[in-house]
Amino acid sequence: MKNFTRIVCAVLALTFCLLCATACGEANYTANNTTYVIGSTGPLTGDASVYGVAVQRGAMLAIEEINNAGGLNGVLFSFEMVDDMAAADKAATGYTSLFEKGMQASIGSVTSGSCASFAAEAEGDGVLFMTPSASAENVIETGENAFRVCFGDAQQGTLAADRLVETYSKIGVIYDTSDPYSTGLYEAFEAQMTKLNKVKDTDYFVYSFTKETNKDFSTQVSELKAKGCDVLFLPFYYTEAALVCKKAAQLDFNVPVFGCDGLDGIKDQLDDTVTAQVSYITPFDVESPDADIKAFVDAFEKKYGEAPNQFAADGYDAVMILYEAMKAAGVNDVKISAADLADLLRPVLTGGTFKYDGLTGKGMTWTVEGSCEKDPQVVIVDRD
């Protein structure tokens, strides 16, 4: 009898545990949700915090706008970003924390390395995310629920090669081998240069650095000047790019500088010694006369006391895209699980009829692979 009792108790205990685990998994911890919960991770402290804080602020403006308009069928939205310091492991733990708090949809992570880690976790739980700014190709290769707002590295690298060979004969490149964003851009650029038959000793010169050796850039700039390059392509972030520009000016190497969306923000890092033209590919121009952009810039400046950059606009668009897709999908259940919500949003985003006119592009659409299709623009940095 005792053995039978022990067996019955063990079976009941196991059954209870399984039921609890199943219930938690199915509910996605949303049983007590009173708002639609959107989560994210990003660098709110550390060297890359300028990007994370910008995305956070843009996303919060979108949340405020949505809630001020009554939310979705009267249900408001909430947003939380966990600081991942641009570290993949912190993004993974941040994801877990957000999911357990009831996250139903996400704007992923801000930087590519972190977002790849975030995406791997999200795929297991069926959470759909729309990253504002993680451009590495592997970010949206994790599964069917991975999407992005920004251009992918391949898109920008290819466009940069096409643009530069139209005008220049000797192209100098410096890239960061320690950064996934920079290497992804460079690899796409090199692939397109090869396709265009431009990878020759006479017209294409490449030098690299790592974050541990980026203090000066004298060697790279001197070598490219000696080669007679008539343009510099800098596929990395604006902080290091500004150092390159200053070093080039110091060495009287005043050729045009061209970059990708990571150069957004470089204007404030340049001084009067830099006279060369600086331009970059971007989906967002803070000085655009577009009425929607002007309204966003005014609201951002009023709230935060400074002008928004591209990452802020990306964060705003990412949240608004999720909101508009939820409206189009007819979502009307604040306690819907993340997986069920993803099943509703995915066909809307990839069905071919959903388009979004945002701050970072008009008529944006998405492929089934999660890539955003929109027209780029090249902005010349105004030094006046």
Q: Which second-level CATH architecture of the largest domain applies?
A: 3-Layer(aba) Sandwich
- pLDDT < 50 stretches: 1-27
Separation, N- and C-terminal Cα atoms: 90 Å
Number of domains: 2
Instruction: Give the tally of β-strands.
Output: 14
Helix count equals 11
- What does the largest sheet look like? 6 strands, mixed
Provide mean pLDDT, rounded. Answer: 89
CATH superfamily of the largest domain: Response regulator
Structure notes:
This protein is of the alpha/beta class and 384 residues long. The protein folds into two domains: 36-151 and 289-375, Response regulator (Rossmann fold), CATH 3.40.50; 154-282, Response regulator (Rossmann fold). Helix content is 45%, strand content 17%. The protein is built from eleven helices and 14 strands. The chain has helices spanning 2-27, 49-68, 88-100, 112-125, 153-167, 180-195, 218-226, 238-250, 291-304, 310-329, 338-350; strands spanning 36-42, 77-83, 105-109, 129-131, 146-148, 171-176, 204-209, 231-234, 257-259, 278-282, 356-358, 361-366, 372-373, 377-380. The chain has a six-stranded mixed beta sheet with strand order 7-6-8-9-10-14, covered by helices on one side. Helix 2 (49-68) runs parallel beside helix 10.
